[in-house]
Amino acid sequence: MGPTAYGQSQPGINRPQGMDEQPDPIGEASMLDLAQMADLRHQAAQRLRKMNVLHARHAWEKRRSDPLSPYALAFLYKQTDPFRRDRQLLTASTKIWLAGPEVSNLPRLLFELNQTIAAQRPPYDVRFALANRRDDTMTDKAVYAGLGVSSLDTHTGTWEQVRSQVSRDSDVPGSIRVVMTDGSVMVGERRGLAEFNTFQVHSTHSLEVAPGHHLMQWSPVGLDNLIADDYHGQIVRWMNELSTTLAWADNQRIAAAQARGRRRAG
What we know:
This protein has helices at 31-61, 106-118, 126-129, 159-162, 223-228, 233-265; strands spanning 68-81, 84-98, 133-134, 143-151, 174-180, 185-190, 199-203, 208-210, 213-214, 218-220. By secondary structure, the chain is α+β, with helices and mostly antiparallel strands. It has one domain. The strands form two sheets. It has an eight-stranded mixed beta sheet, sandwiched between helices.
């Protein structure tokens, strides 16, 4: 099965722990709640799209001097939007590496990061301990919302292949993957200028911010299909493992901050 051709969910495929398919909880949440969740997913996909464009630009500019890894991570956080109190604003801390053998295999990179973070003593704040930068709009009240991966590999070729075939950064394609704490998974591919900057997202959960209203082109995909897909499967599995560990670490960070607040108040 190719990375852009998905059918219905296939029964009988073993899923990693914590990745049971979770349909949008109609009947358990208000339509406003569903719209907020869809909006947050949309923000995450757009944030990763922007990051992927910049990733391609910087990798192209530095390809001969300080080559960058074709993989970068976005640690996604949510907080109340200061301009719309009924909306959650998504922000991110990001991590990109220089190219090297230790960051040349994405599933292995995710696996080893998970092992490293799980071994840290709490509280551990990945935004400061691991990330290179974070959005200026992120506040101390932001809480962990998911993990994104920007990749310069696509189904048409790896970064190593592409960089010898194009003449400018705007023709470098890329792909994104996002695992959210609401159980949703999104994968997307961004094509270069020669292919009209096409951006297509597949998501296990709705991106409709209102019935029949969505802000980007997207298609539904079953989680089983992603896990069974040779192109996405292992990456999504290890993204979920790492995201689960990051959520645990952030809960410990929040608990420690609350404990400090109680001690000061007492």
